[in-house]
């Protein structure tokens, strides 16, 4: 039974390894717009709203906006997770 449960968990983790949570995507969008000078908004040109639950993580990504790396890498890096 344990072998089956572990096999299922490993398979599920492998299949979902490239999925991105919507909360993380929202934070990346806010960070990108803040870095670009549009302010802390989801849609540039629109009034700001409280749209993130991860303020510190989002602000940690702002200085990385000029980097040519993938945003998912910097999201992983800023979260402190052990592996991407």
What is the secondary structure topology, with strand pairs?
Blueprint: H1 2-15, H2 22-35, H3 55-61, H4 71-79
Helix pairs in contact: 2-3
Quick overview of this protein structure:
This protein has 84 residues and is an all-alpha fold. It is 52% helix and 0% strand.
Basic shape: elongated
The unreliable regions are none
Oligomer: single chain
Rg calculated over all Cα atoms? 16 Å
Major pleated sheet: none
Q: What's the total number of strands? A: 0
Give the overall average pLDDT.
Answer: 80
How much of the sequence lies in strands comes to: under 5%
* SS summary, helix count: 4
Report helical residue fraction.
40-55%
Taken in chain order, the helices and strands follow as HHHH
Q: Into how many domains do the coordinates divide?
A: 1
What do you see in this structure?
- This protein has 84 residues and is mainly α.
- It has one domain.
- 52% of the residues lie in helices and 0% in strands.
- It has 4 helices and no strands.
- The protein has helices spanning 2-15, 22-35, 55-61, 71-79.
- Helix 2 (22-35) packs across helix 3 (55-61).
- The two termini are 29 Å apart.
């Amino acid at each position: 039974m344990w072998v089956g449960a572990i096999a299922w968990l490993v398979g599920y983790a492998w299949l979902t390894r490239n999925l991105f949570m919507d909360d993380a995507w929202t934070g990346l969008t806010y960070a990108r717009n803040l870095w670009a000078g549009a302010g802390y908004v989801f849609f540039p040109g629109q009034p700001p709203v409280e749209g993130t639950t991860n303020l510190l993580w989002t602000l940690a990504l702002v200085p990385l906006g000029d980097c040519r790396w993938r945003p998912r890498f910097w999201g992983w890096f800023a979260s402190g997770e052990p592996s991407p």
